[in-house]
Amino acid sequence: MTKETLSKGTTTFPMPAAVISVGVGDDANLITLAYVGKVCLDPPIIAIGINTKRHSFKLINNHDEFVLNYPMRDQLKEMDYCGTRSGRNVNKWEQLGLTKEKGKFVQVPLVKEFPWNMECKVINKLELGSHVCFFGKVLAVHCEKKYLKNNSIDPDRLDTFAYLSGNYIGLKSGILESHGFSLK
């Protein structure tokens, strides 16, 4: 097997694509991130990486809160828009016709039109170079009922996507196996 050496910045695994709400009131902004991941179960902690040059960096730093908003496949254009325009120059909420929804625990608004939202409070920050990693304790998870089964997210109903090597990848192929299937 012949292998090529790639750039160290190449990602070899799919990452969740999420729209992150930061800031409050008229200053609230939306930024699309793929540097997103769950890093702890108890308490539930989500890590997000934001470039220090981004407008949203200042907003999350000022308020120490953020909301993860996951769109569906038919909302891909809105998600891409939020990652290709700066909140310094455009009000993404107005341009996309998105509604700011009040959360239960944070002042940062949820995106009402996106079916899955996670309210997070920043509990730690780690400077890593071009990006700062914000660790957010999950205070609440909200999901439209039609995407749930037995009080849990039903992956067969959730038509979402991931990000890999500059491309959005659909995840709707269905469940391959459940965790632990190899133990059978």
What this model shows, in words?
With 184 residues, the chain is mainly β. It has helices spanning 55-63, 76-84, 92-96; strands spanning 15-16, 18-22, 29-33, 36-40, 45-51, 65-70, 100-101, 110-111, 116-127, 131-143, 148-149, 152-153, 161-164, 167-170. The strands form four sheets. Strands 3-2-6-9-10-5-4 form a seven-stranded antiparallel sheet. β4 (36-40) and β5 (45-51) form a beta hairpin. The protein is globular and about 50 Å long. The mean pLDDT is 92.
- Unreliable spans are none
What structural category arises from helix and sheet content?
Answer: mainly beta
- The CATH class label is Mainly Beta
Mean pLDDT: 92
- How much is the radius of gyration in Å? 17 Å
Distance between the termini: 33 Å
Helix content: 10-25%
Strand order of the largest sheet: 3-2-6-9-10-5-4
The second-level CATH architecture is Roll
Percent of residues in beta strands: 35-45%
Q: Given the structure, what is the number of helices?
A: 3
- Series of secondary-structure elements, N-terminal to C-terminal: EEEEEHEHHEEEEEEEE
Shape: globular
CATH topology: Pnp Oxidase, Chain A
**In the residues, how many domains can be counted?**
1
Largest sheet properties: 7 strands, antiparallel
The CATH superfamily is Electron Transport, Fmn-binding Protein, Chain A
List the helices and strands and how they pair.
Blueprint: E1 15-16, E2 18-22, E3 29-33, E4 36-40, E5 45-51, H1 55-63, E6 65-70, H2 76-84, H3 92-96, E7 100-101, E8 110-111, E9 116-127, E10 131-143, E11 148-149, E12 152-153, E13 161-164, E14 167-170
Antiparallel strand pairs: 1-13, 2-3, 2-6, 4-5, 5-10, 6-9, 7-8, 9-10, 11-12, 13-14
